[in-house]
Automatic annotation (TrEMBL):
This is Minor capsid protein. The lineage of its organism: Bacteria, Bacillati, Bacillota, Clostridia, Eubacteriales. It comes from Youxingia wuxianensis.
Amino acid sequence: MESSVNGAVPELIQSFEKAKKELIKEIYAFYAKHASENGVSLAEAQKQLSFAELREFKGSLKEYERLAKNSIGTYDLQVANLSRKARITRLQALEAECDTILQRLYQEQEKLIQDVVKDVYTQEYYRSQFEIERYTGFMYEFSKIPTSAIEQVIMTPVFGADLSTRLWRQDMDTGFKIRQSLNEMFITGQPPQKFADDLQKIIGARDKSGNLTGKKYEAYRVLYSEGAQALSQSQLQAYIDDDMEYYQIIATLDNKTSEICRSLDGCIFSVTKGGDVPQKYVKGDNEYQRRAYDAKSVISGINFPIFHP
């Protein structure tokens, strides 16, 4: 899994850098078109588009509508609303262009993560079957993974939300922060470099330790957790397909081990019925164990990985 996830990170970073450049380009173009000696005031930004500007903006809606067909979140509703409006301000048009750049970014992120999930699931499913065969000494006929199985993993919520919803939340938060920066720039009369500086903080970079920050880090966390979910679900499916009866949680015990992993280390569960196991396997020394064995099915985060972000 690590190789698949880490292999996707450069593309993840590149897509953010591309979006950042496009956003900065739009802001500088807006500033160059509408600025006076004192910059661009909020009042100036809120002026309505001229007839020619509105016609040009309506022409660009075709690109928006194309993206809206595969929209994340409510972007399709935003586009439909804009297409019906007879009057649009300069600021609304600018925000719409920013939203489109972000929508393109997060659609790219969604496809990238889906590709990683498919790759991880396929590799780990066959790896698990091979390990089971080696351990049991039985020869199994490796079945082809149905597309529906991978699609189900992609749609399965991770920590309460599916992939599309998690990316939509990031899209909305990024858009909100960009709007805040734009409004502050127009209210205070700051030059566009102020927006560029703000955007750099929002998008993030690598810190001195080489770790990602900002939205890049948030996207990496989604990428990693979705990959981890694909890994665990592929293992479970291999157990089911090879008629395994039980599985055991094995945690790496060190100072970084979470409380739930430490608590469930060594616990044995049913592949098909979760905590519904013979009494000799049941443990109830802490809340995590009691909750895990109370669950009469296999549930990620309760009695099967992944347990935490």
